[in-house]
C-alpha cells in the first residue's frame, strides 16, 4: 500500500478545481479511497462502504451509501468519491463560490436528494415519512409518526402543494448552521 | 419518609461509631478474675475493628440514601461536596465527644483499599476506541501539563516566599517543588464525581478523564524524586540526580503499563478456561487486577497505571469469554466497590479535616496556592490546546478549554500524598497538609458546585434562544446522522491505519490465544457479515444477536410502553403528565434538550404541537456526536444506545440483504436461482413453513438440500456468472416472479420496519402477495424475533404480537397452519 499511496490519482488538478478541495486534501482522500477499496479494484463497491462498522449503526446509512452510487451503479471511482465528499468541505474561511460544491446551498441540495428518492425534485409526504421512520425507534406507532410528518410538511410547505420543493426545504432549515453541522475539518 | 426523620436516624447512628470508639479507648481493662460462668458477655474489644469499619461504611451508604431523597439538592450540589460536608460534621461530633481525632484517612488505607477499585472501574469501563484515538492529546495533558503545573506552582510559591510575604517558614526550594508536584495532579476520583453531573461531549470527557488517570505516573515520579531530594538535602542534588529523575519517569510509567498489560494478558488467559467454574469467574477479574496494582506498587512503579491498563486491555477478552451472568456480576460488583470507595473517601476527607493538631494557617501561602493552581492550569490548558489544535482533526473549542481548566480538580490523591510526608524530613508538613485540605475542599465544593451553571451558561449562550421548530429538529437530526456517516466514510475519526493494523494483529494472534473458541467463532461470523455479506452468516448473526442481546431488545410485549406515551388520543392531561414525568426523570443531569422542551411546554398551548415535539424528542435516534453517557460511577448503563444500535443494525442488515438480493435478482433475471436459494436458506433459518406457495417445497425437498450445498459467491455482485443452473421446474419461475414483486414493492412502500418486508422472513410472511401488497401486515420486528425455530411452537406465538394492527397478526399466525406441514425445512439445516 505504501507505493500506491504515494502515487497521485490521475487528473488531480482538474478534480481539485472542480471540487474546490486542495490537492493535499485530495491526496488524503485518495489514501482513504485506497484503504476502503479492500481488494484493490481501483473503484469502490457498496460492500466496501457497508463494511464500515459505524455505518451499519447509522439510521441513514443506506441512503448515504446510495449517494455514492447514483442510479444503481455498482462502482464508484475516485472522482465520484471526491465529489460527494467535497460537499462537506467547510465553506467558511475558504474562498467559496456561491455555486461551489461546498457551499451551504449545495450541502442542502445533497441532503434534499437523499430525501427525494424518486428524484422528482419534490419531497412528498411519503418520502418524508420514510425518512422519519428511519430515524425513529421502532416503538413509535404509525399514527404518531404520520402526525409528525404531516405537521412538518405543513409547516414547511409554502406553496400548499403538499410537497416540499428545494426552496421550501432550504427555508425551513435556514436557521440551522448548515455549514458547521455538515463539514468535516479534514477537508479544509 | 421525609428527610427529617432520616436525618435524625442518621445522626443517631453517627453517634454510635464515635461513642464506640471512645468506649474502646476509655474503658479500663478488667483485670480481675471472673467469678462465675457468664452466659452472655459484651465482647467489644473482640469485634472492635471490623465493627467500626463496617459502621462507617454503613453510615456513608445511609448518607447517600438521605442525599438522594431530595432531588433539588442533588441537582445543584454534587454528591462529593455533600459527602465532604457530612464528613466535616461527623468529624466535629467525634471531636466534640472526645478531643481526639480518632479517624483519619490514612494513606495506607487509601492507597491499598480505596483507590484500586475506583481506578479499576475506570479502566474496565473505559471506552477504548475513544481513549486510544485521543491518546496523543491525553498524554500531552497528562505529562506536560502536570509537569508544567508542578513546576510553575512550586517556583512561583518559592518566588513569593523569597519576597517575605509568607513570613518565616522552614522551607527550601525543594520543599516547594515537592508541594507543587503533589498539588498539581488532577485527581481521577474528583473529576469523575463532578463530570458525571455535567454531560460534556465525548472527546472532552475522555481527555480529562484520561489525563486524570495517566498523570499518576508523573505525580509519583515527581513526588518520589523531590521527596528523596529533600531527604538527601539540597546540596547533594547534582545533575546526575536530576538525570536519574528523568529516567525514573520513563521507567515508572512504562514499567507500570507493562505490568498492567502483563496481568491483563494473564487475566484474559485465565478467563478463557473458566468455563466450568462459572461461579467464581468474577472473582478472577478482581483478584488478578488487584495483584497487578500491588505488584507495581511493590516494584515502585506506577500502580495506578498498572491497574488502569490491566482494565483497559483485558476488557475485550474477558467480556467475550465469561458468561453473561458473570459479566453482569463483574459490572455490578465493580460499580459497587468503586462507588462505595468514592463515598468513603470523600467522607473521610471531611472527617480528617477536623484535626486541630495539623492545622497551620498561613494566609498568604494558602491563598497564593489557590490562585496559582487555577491560573497556571488555565494557562497550561490554553497553551497545550493551541498546540494540539494544529494536529487534531476534531478541534477543541473555547468551551472545551474552559471546562478542562475549570474541571481540573484536586482530590484525595493529593491529600493522601501529603499525609505521607514525613515530619522530620519536611518541616512544614502541617502547613502543607492544611493547604492541601483547603485546596481540595475548594476545588471539589466550589468548583464542583459552579461548573454545571458555568457550562450551562456557556452552552446556552451559543445556542439560539428560540426553541427549534419541528423541521429544524427533524432535519437537524438528519444532518447529524449524515455527518456521522460521512465521518466514518472519510475516515476522519481515529487513526485508522494503526487501528486496522492492531485489529489484524489482534484477530490473528491475540484473540486466538485469549478468547474462547465459541467467542471467536461468533465474532468471526460478525466480521463475515461485515465483510462478505455472506447470507447465511448474516442471518445467523441476526438470530444470534437477538438471542444473546435478547433481554434488552425483546422487550415485553406489554402495553406498558404505550401507556406512558399515549399518542393515539392526545388528551392534554396525558400528554402533560407524561412530559412532566420525563422532565422529572431527567432532572438530574444537565440536559439542555429537556430544558428546551420545558420552555416549549410552557409556551406552546397547542397540544398537538407538544405531542409531535415530544415524539421527536423522545424517539429520534441519537447521532454519534451527542453525548453518550460514556462512563458513570453510579449507574450501569443499560444504555438506550444499545437498543438504538440493535434496532438500526438489524434494520440495516435486513435492508442490505434485500437490496443485495434485488441487485442480484432485479437486474439479472438469470439469478432468480440465487433468490430461491437465499429464500430457501432464509426459510430454513427461520424455520417457517410459510412460503408463498406451499406446493413448491413439497415438490422439491431434495433440491432444497442440494441448494443448501451450493455455496454461491454472494460477495461480489458483479462476478456472478458461475452459478449452476438447477432444474427446479416451473414452480420456481412462479416463485421467482412472486418474490421479485415483493422486492420491487419495498422501495416505493412506506419504509416501516414494523410493516416492511423482511428478507428472509418477508417472503414467507408476505404469503399472499398477489392478494395485497402494502396492506399485508407483517408482525413487527419484535414479534418476528420471538419466532422460534421449530414450527411446532409457531402457534404459541399468537399472543406475542406487537404490532398495532392487532388482529392482523392473528391472521398471520393462523396462516401458517393452513400450509402443508409436510415441509419442514429446519430439520436438516443449520
From TrEMBL, chain A:
* One Pfam family this sequence matches: EF-hand_5
- The EF-hand domain extends over 103-138, 144-179
Its lineage opens with:
Eukaryota, Metazoa, Chordata, Craniata, Vertebrata
Alphabetical list of SMART domains matching this protein: EFh
Q: Spell out the protein name for this chain.
A: Calcineurin B homologous protein 2-like
Q: Which InterPro entries match?
A: Calcineurin_B_homologous, EF-hand-dom_pair, EF_Hand_1_Ca_BS, EF_hand_dom
The protein's location, in the record's own words, is: Cell membrane; Cytoplasm; Nucleus
Q: Does the keyword Lipoprotein apply?
A: yes
Tell me the protein family, please: Belongs to the calcineurin regulatory subunit family. CHP subfamily.
UniProtKB/TrEMBL annotation, chain B:
UniProt-annotated location(s): Apical cell membrane; Early endosome membrane; Recycling endosome membrane
Q: Which UniProt keywords apply?
A: Antiport, Cell membrane, Endosome, Ion transport, Membrane, Phosphoprotein, Signal, Sodium, Sodium transport, Transmembrane, Transmembrane helix, Transport
What's any one GO cellular component for it?
early endosome membrane
Signal sequence segment: 1-21
Query: Which domain of life does the UniProt lineage start with?
Result: Eukaryota
Q: Where is the composition biased (Basic residues)?
A: 674-687
Instruction: Report if keyword ATP-binding is assigned.
Output: no
Q: Name one GO biological process term.
A: sodium ion import across plasma membrane
What catalytic reaction does the record list?
Na(+)(in) + H(+)(out) = Na(+)(out) + H(+)(in)
Q: What is its main location?
A: membrane
Write out the transmembrane intervals: 51-69, 81-97, 109-126, 138-161, 173-195, 202-226, 246-270, 339-359, 365-386, 398-419, 431-451
Q: Name one GO molecular function term.
A: potassium:proton antiporter activity
Q: The Cation/H+ exchanger transmembrane domain covers which part of the protein?
A: 57-457
Question: Segment Disordered: which positions?
Answer: 674-701, 811-830
Annotated membrane topology is:
Multi-pass membrane protein
- Give the UniProt family note: Belongs to the monovalent cation:proton antiporter 1 (CPA1) transporter (TC 2.A.36) family.
Protein's UniProt name? Sodium/hydrogen exchanger
Q: Which gene encodes it?
A: SLC9A3
Amino acid at each position: 500500500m505504501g507505493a500506491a499511496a504515494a502515487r497521485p490519482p490521475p487528473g488531480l488538478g482538474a478534480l481539485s478545481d472542480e471540487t474546490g478541495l486542495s490537492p493535499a486534501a485530495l491526496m488524503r482522500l485518495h489514501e482513504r479511497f485506497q484503504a476502503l477499496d479492500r481488494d484493490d479494484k481501483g473503484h469502490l463497491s457498496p460492500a466496501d462502504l457497508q463494511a464500515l462498522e459505524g455505518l451499519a449503526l447509522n439510521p441513514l446509512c443506506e441512503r448515504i451509501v446510495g449517494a455514492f452510487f447514483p442510479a444503481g451503479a455498482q462502482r464508484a471511482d475516485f472522482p465520484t468519491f471526491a465529489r460527494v465528499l467535497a460537499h462537506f468541505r467547510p465553506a467558511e474561511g475558504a474562498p467559496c463560490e456561491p455555486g461551489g460544491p461546498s457551499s451551504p446551498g449545495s450541502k442542502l441540495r445533497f441532503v434534499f436528494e437523499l430525501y427525494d428518492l424518486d428524484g422528482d425534485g419534490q419531497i412528498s409526504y411519503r418520502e418524508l415519512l420514510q425518512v422519519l421512520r428511519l430515524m425513529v425507534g421502532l416503538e413509535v406507532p404509525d399514527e404518531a409518526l404520520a402526525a409528525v410528518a404531516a405537521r412538518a410538511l405543513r409547516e414547511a410547505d409554502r406553496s400548499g402543494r403538499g410537497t416540499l420543493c428545494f426552496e421550501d426545504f432550504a427555508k425551513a432549515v435556514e436557521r440551522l448552521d448548515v455549514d458547521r453541522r455538515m463539514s468535516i475539518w479534514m477537508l479544509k | 419518609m421525609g428527610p427529617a426523620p432520616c436525618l435524625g436516624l442518621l445522626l443517631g447512628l453517627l453517634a454510635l461509631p464515635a461513642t464506640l470508639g471512645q468506649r474502646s479507648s476509655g474503658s479500663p481493662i478488667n483485670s480481675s478474675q471472673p467469678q462465675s460462668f457468664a452466659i452472655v458477655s459484651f465482647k467489644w474489644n473482640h469485634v472492635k475493628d471490623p465493627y467500626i469499619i463496617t459502621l462507617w461504611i454503613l453510615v456513608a451508604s445511609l448518607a447517600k440514601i438521605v442525599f438522594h431523597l431530595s432531588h433539588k439538592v442533588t441537582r445543584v450540589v454534587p454528591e462529593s461536596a455533600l459527602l465532604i460536608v457530612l464528613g466535616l460534621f461527623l468529624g466535629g461530633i467525634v471531636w466534640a465527644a472526645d478531643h481526639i481525632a480518632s479517624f483519619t484517612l490514612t494513606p495506607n488505607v487509601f492507597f491499598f483499599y480505596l483507590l484500586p477499585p475506583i481506578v479499576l472501574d475506570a479502566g474496565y469501563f473505559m471506552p477504548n476506541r475513544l481513549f486510544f484515538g485521543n491518546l496523543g492529546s491525553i498524554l500531552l495533558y497528562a505529562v506536560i501539563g502536570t509537569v508544567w503545573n508542578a513546576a510553575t506552582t512550586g517556583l512561583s510559591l518559592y518566588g513569593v516566599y523569597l519576597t517575605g510575604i509568607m513570613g518565616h517558614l522552614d522551607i527550601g526550594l525543594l520543599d516547594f517543588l515537592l508541594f507543587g508536584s503533589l498539588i498539581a495532579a488532577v485527581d481521577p476520583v474528583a473529576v469523575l464525581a463532578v463530570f458525571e453531573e455535567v454531560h460534556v461531549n465525548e472527546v472532552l470527557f475522555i481527555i480529562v478523564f484520561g489525563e486524570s488517570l495517566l498523570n499518576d505516573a508523573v505525580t509519583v515520579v515527581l513526588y518520589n524524586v523531590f521527596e528523596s531530594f529533600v531527604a538527601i538535602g539540597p546540596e547533594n542534588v547534582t545533575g546526575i540526580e536530576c538525570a536519574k529523575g528523568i529516567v525514573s519517569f520513563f521507567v515508572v510509567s512504562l514499567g507500570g503499563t507493562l505490568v498492567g498489560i502483563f496481568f491483563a494478558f494473564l487475566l484474559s488467559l485465565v478467563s478463557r478456561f473458566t468455563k466450568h467454574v462459572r461461579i467464581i469467574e468474577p472473582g478472577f477479574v478482581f483478584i488478578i487486577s488487584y495483584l497487578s496494582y500491588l505488584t507495581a506498587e511493590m516494584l515502585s512503579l506506577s500502580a495506578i497505571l498498572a491497574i488502569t491498563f490491566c482494565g483497559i486491555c483485558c476488557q475485550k477478552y474477558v467480556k467475550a469469554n465469561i458468561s453473561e451472568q458473570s459479566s453482569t456480576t463483574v459490572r455490578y460488583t465493580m460499580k459497587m466497590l468503586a462507588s462505595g470507595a468514592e463515598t468513603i473517601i470523600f467522607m473521610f476527607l471531611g472527617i480528617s479535616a477536623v484535626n486541630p493538631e495539623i492545622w497551620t494557617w498561613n494566609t498568604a501561602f494558602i491563598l497564593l496556592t489557590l490562585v496559582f493552581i487555577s491560573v497556571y492550569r488555565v494557562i497550561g490548558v490554553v497553551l497545550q490546546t493551541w498546540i494540539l489544535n494544529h494536529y487534531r482533526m476534531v478541534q477543541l473549542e473555547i468551551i472545551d478549554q474552559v471546562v478542562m481548566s475549570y474541571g481540573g480538580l484536586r482530590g484525595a490523591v493529593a491529600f493522601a500524598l501529603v499525609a505521607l510526608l514525613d515530619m522530620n524530613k519536611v518541616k512544614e508538613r502541617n502547613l502543607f497538609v492544611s493547604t492541601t485540605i483547603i485546596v481540595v475542599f475548594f476545588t471539589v465544593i466550589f468548583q464542583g458546585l459552579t461548573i454545571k451553571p458555568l457550562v450551562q451558561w456557556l452552552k446556552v449562550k451559543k445556542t439560539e434562544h428560540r426553541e427549534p421548530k419541528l423541521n429544524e429538529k427533524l432535519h437537524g437530526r438528519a444532518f447529524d446522522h449524515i455527518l456521522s456517516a460521512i465521518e466514518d466514510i472519510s475516515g476522519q475519526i481515529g487513526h485508522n491505519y494503526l487501528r486496522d493494523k492492531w485489529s489484524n494483529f489482534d484477530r490473528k494472534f491475540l484473540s486466538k490465544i485469549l478468547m474462547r473458541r465459541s467467542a471467536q467463532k461468533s465474532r468471526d461470523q460478525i466480521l463475515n457479515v461485515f465483510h462478505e455479506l455472506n447470507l447465511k452468516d448474516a442471518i445467523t448473526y441476526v438470530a444470534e444477536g437477538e438471542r444473546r442481546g435478547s433481554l434488552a431488545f425483546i422487550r415485553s410485549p406489554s402495553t406498558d410502553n404505550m401507556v406512558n406515551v399515549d399518542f393515539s388520543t392526545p388528551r392534554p392531561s396525558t400528554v402533560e403528565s407524561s412530559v412532566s414525568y420525563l422532565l422529572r426523570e431527567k432532572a438530574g443531569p444537565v440536559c439542555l434538550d429537556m430544558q428546551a422542551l420545558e420552555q416549549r411546554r410552557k409556551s406552546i398551548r397547542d397540544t398537538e404541537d407538544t405531542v409531535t415535539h415530544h415524539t421527536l424528542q423522545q424517539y429520534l435516534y441519537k447521532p454519534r456526536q451527542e453525548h453518550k453517557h460514556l462512563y458513570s460511577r453510579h449507574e450501569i448503563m443499560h444504555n438506550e444506545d444499545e437498543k438504538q444500535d440493535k434496532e438500526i443494525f438489524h434494520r440495516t442488515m435486513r435492508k442490505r440483504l434485500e437490496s443485495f438480493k434485488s441487485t442480484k435478482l432485479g437486474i439479472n433475471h438469470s439469478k432468480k436461482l440465487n433468490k430461491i436459494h437465499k429464500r430457501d436458506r432464509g426459510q430454513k433459518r427461520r424455520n417457517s413453513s410459510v412460503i408463498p406457495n406451499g406446493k413448491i417445497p413439497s415438490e422439491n425437498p431434495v433440491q432444497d438440500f442440494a441448494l443448501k450445498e451450493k455455496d454461491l459467491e454472494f460477495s461480489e455482485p458483479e462476478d456472478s456468472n458461475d452459478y449452476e443452473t438447477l432444474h427446479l421446474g416451473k414452480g420456481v419461475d412462479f416463485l421467482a416472479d412472486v418474490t421479485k414483486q415483493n422486492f420491487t414493492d419495498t422501495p416505493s412502500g412506506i419504509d416501516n420496519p414494523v410493516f416492511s418486508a423482511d428478507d428472509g422472513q418477508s417472503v414467507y410472511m408476505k404469503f399472499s402477495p398477489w392478494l395485497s401488497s402494502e396492506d399485508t401486515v407483517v408482525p413487527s420486528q419484535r414479534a418476528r424475533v420471538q419466532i422460534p425455530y421449530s414450527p411446532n411452537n409457531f402457534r404459541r406465538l399468537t399472543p406475542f404480537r406487537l404490532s398495532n394492527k392487532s388482529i392482523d397478526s392473528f391472521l398471520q399466525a393462523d396462516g401458517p397452519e393452513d400450509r402443508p406441514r409436510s415441509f419442514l425445512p429446519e430439520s436438516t439445516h443449520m
